[in-house]
Design brief:
By secondary structure, the chain is an alpha+beta fold. It is built from 19 helices and 35 strands. The protein has 3 domains: about 200 residues, no CATH class; about 30 residues, no CATH class; about 350 residues, Methylamine Dehydrogenase, Chain H, CATH 2.130.10.10. Helix content is about 20%, strand content about 20%. The strands form 10 sheets. It has a 5-stranded antiparallel β-sheet. A 4-stranded antiparallel β-sheet has the order 7-35-34-33, with no helix packed on it. Strand 34 and strand 35 form a beta hairpin. The longest helix has 23 residues.
C-alpha cells in the first residue's frame, strides 16, 4: 500500500523491518501501545472494519484521500508540556479522534473496493478479542476521569476534533514507531521532527543479538494464569507451563537448598532461576569488592624496553681495580660485628623465645573444643554417661528403694554393688546434701581421659601356631633320658659335686658333709668314701681325670685341692696313677707342713697326712682362697682351679707332671665364676658375672668376648666341636652362642622359673641340659651342622622332675654319661639320681 499523505509537514517514515522483527516488536510492545492509545480506543468501535497494514503500519490509499479533503489546522503541530495534565493528553486525544474519523471514511470506501478485506482482518487480529478491548476501554475511562472539571473535558474534546488532521502526523507507521517517539517538534525546515526516547542499552533492546525463548515481550506472566501455557516460542508453538510440586516438595526444597538456588523465578520460562558456578563466583567477588575479571591488579611491570638510552650496550673496557681490592669499609663493619659476637652482645644462633602471650594453652576439660579432623585411626575420648531418673533429687516413686533393698545394698560389698548410690527424694533442691563420691568420680573421670586410647592400632590376625617353628617330634630324636632309674643316698646335707669316670662305671660325688664318695653306677652301691673337709668344709667340686687307666680324682674342699687314687681299680691302673702323681715331686720344693706355708705364694704342693694317705689321697695343693671349681685339660696333665675371691689369682693352672702352679692373669676383670679349656684348641674360656672371655694361650691374647645379656652367670659349657657355647645365669635364662655367628646369643631359652645352677653338653650325642633351683632338669636336643649356612637345631625334649627343693635350692650339679644317653644329677635334698632312657 501507499503511505499516508500528511496534511501538514510530513513526518519521516520508519525503517522497514523483517517479518520476524515486526512480529516480535508488535507483540513485545503491544500492551504499551494500547495504553498510550487508550483515548482512541474509547471512541473507536470494536466492530468497525478498521483497515490496518501489519507490514508497514500505514493505512490504505482511500483513507489518505479522505483525509486530504479535511481542512488543516496549525494547532496540530503545537508542542505540549508533560507537566500539565491537559497539555499531556492534548496531542494524544486529537490524534485518536482524527484517526478514528479517517479510518471510518476509509472503511466505507474499502467496502466498495476488492482486496481490502484482508487488511481489515489483520487489523482486527492486531487489536485482539473483546476481552482486550474491554481492558483498553477501562484504561481510557481512567484517563478521562482524571480530568476533574467538565469544562476542561469539553475543552479537550473541542481541541481533539479541531486537530484531527494535525494529529495524524503522530500516528505514522506501526506501534513500534509510536513507542519510540517521545514528542514532535518543528525543525529548521518547518517540518515536524520526531524526538525519540533515550535507548536503555540492556539485553531486551533492539541492538542486542540475544534471542528470547519466550516471545510474549513485556506481557506479564500473570496474563497466562488461566491458561496451560505461558507464551510462544519463535516458531509460534506454545510453551507449556512447568509442572509444580506439591507442598511437601516445596518444603523439602526450602530445607535442602539445591546448588545455585536463588529463590527467584525466570519471567520467561516460569522455572526456578539457578546460577552456575561461574556466576556464583562472580557475585561473590562483587560482594567482597574484588576484581570480577581474571586480572591481577598487582602484576609486576615488565620493562620490555629499557627506560635508559644506551649508546653502546656492551663495553670492552677493562674491569676497574676497585672490584678486586677488598673494601676497607666492609672490613671495619665485619670486625665490629665480630667484636660484638665475642663480647656476647650479639648471639647469632640464639633460639627465638616465643612471647608468653603467644604460647599455646590447651584446656583439657573444656566442652567446646574444636573437633579433631575425622581420621580412620582416631578414637574420640569417652563421654560421661548421662544421668538417669533415679539420680534426680526428686525421682518418681517407683525408683525409690524399699527397706529390704536398702538393707541388701548396705550388706553388699562396695565392689559388688550395681550402683554407688541409693535413690533419695528431697522436697527441694536446697535440701540436697553434699555428694560424698564427688571427688572420687572426678578422679576416675580423669583416669578415663588419661588412660583412654586415642589411636586405633591395627592388630595382626596371625595364628599363634604358625609362628612356632616346625620342629621334629621328640619321638624321632631318641634316645634321651626320660625317667629316674637309680637314686644314690648316703650324704648328709646338700650334694654339690658330681662326676663320672671315662669308663662310665663309677660315679663320684661330694657334699656339705666334707666327704667324697664313689658309687657303682648300675647298682647304686657306695664303693669308697674319703673325708677331705676340715671343720665340716663342703666339697665344692669333684672331677675325674680324662686320661684313661689313670684313676686320678681331683676334689676341692675349702682352700685345698686333693688328688686321690681310690682303691677301686686294678693294680695296673693304680700303678699308672701313682707314677703320674709322683713324677712331679722332683721338680717341686721340699715338702713342708701345712702350717709353715707362706701365704704370699700362689699355692703349695704338699704330701697328705697319714690319715688322708690311708684314705687314698696322694697330693694336696693348698691355695690362698676357696676353690669353687675344677676343670681338666683334655690331655690330663693340666687342670684349673677357680677361686672367685682370689682377685688376680682367681684362675690358677696346675701341672701334675711338674707340680707347678701358675697364674695366667695379672689383673682381674670382674668376679670370675668359671674357667674351662677348649676341647682341642689352646684356648681358655673364662666366665665373669656378665661376660665369657676367650683367651688364646699360644699368643696370650683375648680373641673374643661373648655377651649373654645376663645379670649374673652361674655356669657355662663348650660344645665338643668347640664352635658353640651355652651359658646359665641366676636370672633364669639359658643362652646358646654360635661363635661363628655373633657374640650375642643365638637363642635364649626361658624354661625355668628360678635360678639356673648348671648347664652341660653331652660329649657324643646331640644333647644338652640345664638344672635349676626349681627342682627341674630340662633336656634339649641340639644338633650342630657342619654346613655353615645352617643354624643349629634346638628342640626341647623332656622335663625331669624328681629332686626336692630344700631352702630354695633344687638341682645343684649335673653330669652326662660318657657313652650312654644317661644323666646324673645331685641336689639340695642330699641325693644323687641317674636318669636313663
Amino acid at each position: 500500500m501507499a503511505k499516508r499523505k500528511l496534511a501538514g509537514a510530513k513526518k519521516p517514515a520508519a525503517k522497514p523491518q523483517t517479518s520476524a522483527q515486526g512480529t516480535g516488536n508488535r507483540q513485545g510492545s503491544k500492551l504499551a501501545n494500547l495504553q498510550r492509545r487508550a483515548p482512541r480506543l474509547l471512541i473507536m468501535d470494536a466492530d468497525e472494519d478498521n483497515e490496518y497494514d501489519d507490514n508497514n503500519g500505514f493505512i490504505d490509499d482511500e483513507a489518505e484521500e479522505a483525509e486530504e479533503d479535511e481542512p488543516e489546522d496549525e494547532s496540530d503541530l503545537e508542542e505540549y508540556d508533560g507537566e500539565d495534565v491537559s497539555e499531556q493528553f492534548e496531542g494524544l486525544l486529537d490524534g485518536v479522534i482524527s484517526d478514528s474519523e479517517s479510518e471510518d471514511e476509509a472503511g466505507d470506501k474499502a467496502s466498495e473496493g476488492d482486496g481490502e478485506e484482508n487488511d481489515a482482518d489483520e487489523r482486527t487480529q492486531y487489536f485482539g478479542e473483546d476481552d482486550e478491548i474491554e481492558e483498553h476501554e477501562d484504561a481510557a475511562e481512567v484517563i478521562i476521569n482524571s480530568v476533574s472539571d467538565d469544562d476542561e473535558e469539553d475543552e479537550y474534546l473541542s481541541k481533539y476534533s479541531a486537530a484531527s488532521d494535525a494529529e495524524s502526523l503522530s500516528s505514522i507507521s506501526s506501534d513500534q514507531e509510536d513507542s519510540r517517539v517521545a514528542y514532535y517538534t518543528t525543525g529548521a525546515d518547518g517540518k515536524p521532527r520526531p524526538i525519540y526516547h533515550e535507548i536503555d542499552p540492556h539485553y531486551s533492546s533492539d541492538d542486542s543479538d540475544l534471542e528470547d525463548v519466550n516471545t510474549i515481550g513485556k506481557v506479564p506472566l500473570s496474563a497466562y494464569d488461566e491458561y496451560p501455557h505461558i507464551g510462544y516460542d519463535i516458531n509460534g508453538k506454545r510453551i507449556m507451563r512447568p509442572a509444580t510440586g506439591s507442598a511437601l516438595d516445596s518444603l523439602l526444597d526450602s530445607i535442602e537448598v539445591p546448588e545455585g538456588w536463588t529463590g527467584l523465578i525466570d519471567k520467561e520460562s516460569g522455572a526456578d532461576l539457578k546460577l552456575t558456578k561461574e556466576e556464583l563466583e562472580l557475585v561473590k567477588k562483587i560482594q567482597l569488592g574484588e576484581n570480577a575479571g581474571e586480572v591481577d591488579p598487582y602484576e609486576s611491570t615488565i620493562e620490555w624496553f629499557s627506560s635508559k638510552t644506551e649508546i653502546m650496550g656492551l663495553s670492552a673496557a677493562p674491569e676497574p681495580k676497585r672490584r678486586f681490592v677488598p673494601s676497607k669499609y666492609e672490613a671495619k663493619r665485619i670486625m665490629k660485628i665480630v667484636r660484638a659476637i665475642r663480647e656476647g652482645r650479639i648471639s647469632p644462633n640464639k633460639p627465638k623465645v616465643r612471647p608468653e602471650d603467644e604460647q599455646p594453652v590447651y584446656d583439657l576439660w573444656a566442652d567446646d573444643l574444636q573437633e579433631q579432623q575425622p581420621h580412620v585411626m582416631h578414637i574420640p575420648a569417652p563421654k560421661v554417661a548421662k544421668p538417669t531418673n533415679d539420680e534426680s533429687y526428686n525421682p518418681p516413686e517407683e525408683y525409690l528403694p524399699s527397706e529390704e533393698e536398702i538393707n541388701a545394698w548396705n550388706e553388699t560389698d562396695e565392689m559388688d554393688r550395681e550402683t554407688d548410690y541409693l535413690p533419695r527424694k528431697f522436697s527441694s533442691l536446697r535440701t540436697v546434701p553434699r555428694y560424698e563420691n564427688f571427688v572420687r568420680e572426678r578422679f576416675e573421670r580423669s583416669l578415663d581421659l588419661y588412660l583412654a586410647p586415642r589411636v586405633r592400632r591395627n592388630k595382626l590376625n596371625i595364628d599363634p601356631d604358625s609362628l612356632l617353628p616346625k620342629l621334629p617330634s621328640p619321638q624321632d630324636l631318641r634316645p634321651f633320658p626320660i625317667k629316674c632309674s637309680v637314686t644314690y643316698r648316703g650324704h648328709k646335707g646338700r650334694v654339690r659335686a658330681v662326676s663320672v669316670d671315662s669308663s662310665g662305671l663309677w660315679l663320684a660325688t661330694g657334699g656339705d658333709d666334707g666327704t667324697v664318695r664313689i658309687w657303682e653306677v648300675l647298682t647304686g652301691r657306695e664303693i669308697w668314701k674319703a673325708t677331705v673337709g676340715d671343720n665340716d668344709e663342703a666339697v665344692e667340686s669333684v672331677e675325674w681325670s680324662p686320661v684313661k687307666d689313670s684313676g686320678i680324682l681331683a676334689a676341692s674342699a675349702g682352700e685345698k685341692i686333693f688328688l686321690c687314687l681310690p682303691p677301686i681299680f686294678d693294680d695296673e691302673t693304680e700303678v699308672t696313677g701313682q707314677e703320674l702323681l709322683a713324677a712331679g715331686w722332683g721338680y717341686a720344693a721340699q715338702p713342708a707342713p701345712v702350717e709353715q706355708i707362706n701365704k704370699e705364694q700362689q699355692c703349695k704342693w704338699i704330701k697328705p697326712s697319714e690319715k688322708l694317705a690311708s684314705q687314698g689321697v696322694d697330693v694336696v695343693i693348698v691355695c690362698r682362697k676357696t676353690v669353687k671349681q675344677i676343670a681338666w685339660h683334655r690331655r690330663g696333665d693340666y687342670f684349673t682351679g677357680v677361686s672367685p675371691e682370689g682377685a688376680n689369682m682367681a684362675v690358677l693352672v696346675h701341672q701334675i707332671s711338674k707340680h707347678n702352679t701358675q697364674s695366667p692373669f695379672r689383673k682381674s676383670k670382674g668376679i670370675i665364676q668359671r674357667a674351662q679349656f677348649h676341647p682341642f684348641k689352646p684356648m681358655l674360656y673364662v666366665a665373669t658375672q656378665r661376660y665369657v672371655r676367650i683367651y688364646d694361650l699360644s699368643t696370650q691374647s683375648l680373641t673374643k668376648a661373648l655377651q649373654p645379656g645376663a645379670r649374673w652367670l652361674s655356669s657355662f659349657d663348650i660344645h665338643p666341636q668347640g664352635d658353640n657355647v651355652i651359658t646359665g645365669s641366676y636370672d633364669k635364662r639359658v643362652t646358646w652362642h654360635d661363635l661363628d655367628l655373633s657374640t650375642k646369643p643365638y637363642r635364649t631359652l626361658r624354661y625355668h622359673t628360678r635360678a639356673v645352677r648348671d648347664v652341660r653338653f653331652h660329649t657324643r650325642l646331640p644333647l644338652f641340659c640345664s638344672a635349676s633351683d626349681d627342682g627341674h632338669i630340662n633336656v634339649f636336643h641340639g644338633t650342630v651342622y657342619d654346613d655353615l649356612l645352617r643354624n643349629p637345631l634346638l628342640v626341647p625334649l623332656k622335663v625331669l622332675k624328681g629332686h626336692t627343693v630344700v631352702q630354695s635350692l633344687g638341682v645343684l650339679k649335673v653330669a652326662w654319661h660318657p657313652k650312654e644317653a644317661w644323666l646324673f644329677s645331685v641336689g639340695a635334698d642330699g641325693t644323687a639320681k641317674l636318669w636313663t632312657s
